[in-house]
Design goal:
mainly alpha, transcription cis-regulatory region binding, AcrR family transcriptional regulator, DNA-binding, HTH-type_TetR-like_transc_reg
Length: 215
């Protein structure tokens, strides 16, 4: 898992430049055989999750499904948590392309506040669609969510947009964390089980937060 911190946000109102994607499962160019093994492992893990759910995902089961030694998986992904984050990275790459270069309001071309709202709503929908995977990744270790590469990119993206939307002197880094906080899978799990709240309820709450914080 890539724990690099994002660079400081630009201070101008111009759209942010393309940023290398700090994802957990891709750290260096791969040999052809390593790339094939990675694809076999992730495809096997995806099939297991589709058939049995994330709770049944184990390194041993993936190794058997992929026809690859357990040691290869541990060397490549570290442990089960690393494998879960790698599965999420498969979707994260597409999502990052959408909010960095896709059509507005999620992508460039809309007002900053509209882009922030579209971004948070998209994260809520993704969190609901991939709930078991995200919950397993976040629960894998204390602070796992905040050390992940995708969280760093999401935070940096929000900081950039908030810098454009808020007056100078606003603590946009804190505000970005505050806006991402309701999208924690651990909190969403509580809201689901205790409050009966789904993705639409989360998005309505995020809209309230935006009105209170951005006006």
């Amino acid at each position: 898992m890539d724990s690099r911190r994002p660079a400081p946000p630009p201070s101008s109102g111009a759209p942010e430049p393309p940023t290398p994607l700090p994802l957990a499962g891709k750290t260096a160019p791969e040999r052809a055989d390593a790339a094939r093994n990675r694809r076999r492992i992730l495809d096997a893990a995806t099939r297991i999750v589709a058939r049995h759910g994330v709770r049944e995902l184990t390194v041993d089961l993936v190794a058997g499904e992929a026809g690859i030694g357990v040691g290869t998986i541990y060397r490549r992904f570290g442990d089960r948590a690393g494998l879960v984050f790698a599965l999420l990275d498969e979707h994260e790459r597409d999502f990052q392309r959408e909010f960095m270069a896709g059509p507005p309001p999620l992508g460039p071309g809309a007002e900053p506040t509209a882009r922030i709202r579209a971004f948070l709503h998209a994260l809520a929908d993704r969190g609901a669609a991939q709930f078991e995977l995200v919950l397993a990744a976040e629960a894998s270790a204390p602070g796992a969510r905040y050390r992940s590469g995708p969280y760093a990119v999401h935070h940096m993206h929000l900081v950039t947009l908030l810098t454009q939307a808020r007056p100078p002197g606003t603590d946009v880094r804190f505000l970005a964390d505050a806006l991402l906080a309701p999208l924690s899978a651990l909190l969403m799990d509580h809201q689901r089980r205790v409050r009966g709240m789904g993705a639409q309820g989360v998005k309505a709450g995020l809209d309230d937060l935006l009105r209170w914080s951005l006006g």
